[in-house]
Amino acid sequence: MCACVPLLASAQAGASGRQQAADFADLSIEELANIEVTSVSRRPERLQDAPASVFVITAEDLRRAGSRSLPEALRLAPNLQVARLSNTGYYISARGMNGTSNSPANKLLVMIDGRSVYSPLFSGVFWDEPDVMLEDVERIEVISGPGGTLWGVNAVNGVINITTRHTEGTRGDLAMLRADEDGAQLAFRHGAGDEAGSWRIYGKLFGQGHGELGSGQAIDDDWTQGQVGLRADWMRGADRYSVNANAWRGREGQPAPGVVAVPGASVGLADIDTHGANVTGRWERTLEDGASLAVQAYYDRRYRKVPPTFTDTVDIADVQFQHALAPLGRHLVVWGGEYRYNRDHVDNSRFVAFLPARDKQDWASLFAQDQIALRETLHLTAGVRYERNPYTGAEFLPSLRLSWRATPAHAFWAAASRTVRAPSRLDVDSYSPGAPPYVLAGGGGVRAEVARVFELGYRGQVSQMLSYSVTAFRNLYDHLRTQELSPDGRSLVFGNMMTGQSRGIEAWGSLQLSDAWRLSAGATALHEKFSLAPGSRDPGSPLAAGLDPAWTAQLRSSYAFDARRELEVAVRHAGATLPAVPAYTALDARFGWRVSPGMEVSVIGTNLNGGHGEYGPASVRTEVPRTVGVKVVWTR
């Protein structure tokens, strides 16, 4: 985990800052193992006990790194591959399959406070839409590996669960101002209340200038966006309630190519317009003997206009129920269900059409999971999910996980899972151009993509100075999406005539070198192989599906000079990918200074060793630049 040497928020009179840092650091390696996570079993459990490859980005990690956006914050997780094509175009995946022709990162489920931001239009995440005020994030749990049994189809290669802070911890005022060479941000937050109930409101506005190609040519990807929101938490006896609402609007340039090519057409690219709003409500009750109930519902409306290709308006209503039973002898059982209704309306164009233009869809699922204590130190977790989707009907998502605590500080685990990615409207309903004769004519016969995943892992704390985690995995994929000739040979259609396999190792750890200095490191190694079934005529898909570096690595140094000054230095490396994306190394740094108890000033530099490209052919990819910025955070 990317933990750092946290500075104490306040200093007691007469105690030195260095001694305070030492006091905290003496506990923090042990505290890493005791951080509670919920994404693995839907129950709070210690990170050390979780039988999965899970990395936690804490609020302190975010503060010390100085990340300015959610995609950039995810670079802190060594089990993710984060690649930037433009200011708003990010390709983020776990354990590979970050290729463009197979829908980039369409096997990664992303949630913010329990609300999925996975798009039903194209089976992925528009990374310019999900946004949070990073100062209000409590933690980000990043699971590399399948999570379908608990979270449903599309949680194939990973789950990102972003949790914001309870409002009890955000009472008071906060203002943030940041200026970088290529943009600026402004944010505020106000919170109030008491232990029985509290609330906060926030707002943020940011702008980012256009990027450049490696040749120096400007790219039309400048971006401005604003967002406001509120959250309230309160208790009534054994009942806990929470309401979370957000609204946002953005406008961004549209870099080339941006348009489906149509012979004889010459069209300029207008700006992309996006806006949306969502509201989430949650009720929890603690029952006798350790049982609990939880119900969550949310409504999410998203609008996206991409001239001149399409405009999409989607309304999503989702209800989830969960019941954790009281312990039954050696059994801990949790079960629940989910129902989601989606109404989608696409304004088609002569370039792209989704047919039908208006569609209504629903998903329904039930899941159950039992954690069985075979022995005091040996636990078996068995789970299954039944999920019905509008395209392929019923899907079964089983998993088995075995965990063994060899000693209080050393744990081993193994897992076998089956999960799927269900088709989206892009797979089934997309046509190009927007009127006959079609070059691409949908995919009415597509199947769900299937993954069988096998994992072995170890997580341990060697001493108060060193902790680390290692996971080996093997994924076997069937029915991966391809583009094939239609039966009449006049157009292309989506099919499922590709298989694949991948294997790899991911590892990370933290080393406390002194009272004030900690090193955190992580690395991944990945090998992928994809092949076509007999009869397929799509040689491009196997090449595009494996657009991932064979290995990545990162090293972070966190040093506290005293209780007021700190230095964070990070080195990231990614191996070469195709087509023609060379390996790169990036150097980032942040110096933070607590000017007073309520004010912190930071100087933040990214890619200090020079710009580099991260994704796509050189003709369209952004040269991710060297930037230096100043950030001021004031709290009261």
Structure report:
- The protein has helices at 17-34, 59-65, 70-73, 148-151, 425-429, 540-545; strands spanning 36-37, 45-46, 53-58, 81-84, 90-93, 108-112, 115-116, 137-144, 158-164, 172-180, 183-193, 197-208, 223-236, 239-252, 272-286, 292-306, 310-324, 331-347, 353-354, 358-375, 378-389, 393-407, 410-421, 430-432, 440-441, 449-461, 466-485, 492-514, 517-532, 551-560, 565-574, 584-596, 599-606, 627-635.
- With 636 residues, the chain is mostly beta strands.
- It has one domain (17-635): TonB-dependent receptor, beta-barrel domain (Maltoporin, Chain A).
- The chain has a 22-stranded antiparallel beta barrel.
Give the SSE map.
Blueprint: H1 17-34, E1 36-37, E2 45-46, E3 53-58, H2 59-65, H3 70-73, E4 81-84, E5 90-93, E6 108-112, E7 115-116, E8 137-144, H4 148-151, E9 158-164, E10 172-180, E11 183-193, E12 197-208, E13 223-236, E14 239-252, E15 272-286, E16 292-306, E17 310-324, E18 331-347, E19 353-354, E20 358-375, E21 378-389, E22 393-407, E23 410-421, H5 425-429, E24 430-432, E25 440-441, E26 449-461, E27 466-485, E28 492-514, E29 517-532, H6 540-545, E30 551-560, E31 565-574, E32 584-596, E33 599-606, E34 627-635
Parallel strand pairs: 6-9
Antiparallel strand pairs: 1-2, 3-8, 4-5, 6-7, 8-9, 10-11, 10-34, 11-12, 12-13, 13-14, 14-15, 15-16, 16-17, 17-18, 18-20, 19-24, 20-21, 21-22, 22-23, 23-26, 24-25, 26-27, 27-28, 28-29, 29-30, 30-31, 31-32, 32-33, 33-34
